Amino acid sequence: MEVLAPEALIDDLRGVLRGRYPVHPVRQLLLGGELTREQLQGWAKNQFHEFRNIHRFFGIRYQKCPIQALRRMLLENMVEEEGEDLFGGEYPSHAELWTRFGEGLGIPREEMQGYEPLPGIKAALEMYVQLVQQSHWAVAIGTGLVFEGEGPKRMGEERQALETNYPWIPSEALAFFRAHEYHDEGHGDFIVEVIKEHIMDAGLQEEMRAAVRTRVDIMWLQNESIYQAFVRPQLSPEAAGRLEAAAN
Ligand SMILES: [Fe+2]
After folding, report:
1. 9: CA distance to ligand 1 center in Å?
2. What is the mean pLDDT of residues 100-113?
3. What is the mean pLDDT of the chain?
4. Ligand 1 centroid vs 186 CA: distance in angstroms?
5. CA-closest candidate to residue 243, choices 19, 32, 16, 14
6. What separation in Å is there between the alpha carbon of 232 and the centre of ligand 1?
7. Labelling 3: which of 63, 177, 195, 223 has CA 20 to 30 A away?
8. Which CATH number is 6-247's, of 2.60.120.260, 3.40.50.720, 3.30.70.980, 1.20.910.10?
9. What residues are neighbours of ligand 1 (ion), with CB under 5 Å?
């Protein structure tokens, strides 16, 4: 098996990502401002399941990592998740920021916190925890390329779409997105550096590629679960057909 040079490997992984992460119907509608308030609420309540359980995979990455300098970066990332206010910073935990986003959408705090996610959403989280658990330590960090690595772009896109197309959402409710636009810039670089430095043999590169594919599938499953439960039943067959064709 061929071993790719660092830059070529990153390009290759981003290619896997783009090849398998077409714009899902839920994202097309979200970004286009076409979700109803109830559909946005369904999206937010289900997305919360991963955002409130980040410790389950971040903790594994930290515990597995043999290099102290990298563990410090992972720890910093975990502090952001659990709340920078722990060390006098501005932001509370990301779960709290998401809860406030939900309040901005009209979801009472208790409803968000007590919500029972869709089965596919629960399965997706378990798949991701298992992927990180089973992977080589550097691959476990590298799977972040799919979400955190694309994070600033993705979060910026979502914030802009929410601001422009859903002007009834109060601006302060979007702090979750602003926090990630800012932080994920650094996390993306960190992930890319770990991949370039520590995934430099053929077997690990293959493991990394497969892990990126699985992470993309997990995100697809999350979007698909939300789409089938809250969105598709309200679309005309023609509209659903158009969206689904564009996603394949
Ligand atoms: Fe976060």
Report:
1. 26
2. 98
3. 92
4. 13
5. 32
6. 28
7. 63
8. 1.20.910.10
9. 94
Cα angle 223, 229, 232 (rounded to 5 degrees) comes to 85
Going from the Cα of 95 to the center of ligand 1, the distance in angstroms, rounded, reads 8
In this prediction, residue 151 has a pLDDT band, given cuts at 50, 70 and 90, of low
The structure tokens 């810039």 sit at: 185
Interval 157-180: pLDDT, tens: 999 999 999 999 999 999 999 988
pLDDT at 149: 63
| Locus of tokens 């910073």 | 89
Ligand 1: distance of its center to the CA of 151 in Å? 10
Nearest to 56 by CA among 115, 126, 9, 110: 126
Every domain of the chain and the residues it spans: 6-247
CA of 93 to the centre of ligand 1 (A): 8
Distance 94 CA to ligand 1 centre (A): 5
Instruction: Tell me what pLDDT residue 148 has.
Output: 64
CA atoms of 95 and 82, how far apart (whole Å): 8
Ligand 1 centroid to Cα of residue 179, in Å, is 8
The CA 184 to ligand 1 mean position distance, Å, reads 8
CB 41 within 8 A of CB 98: no
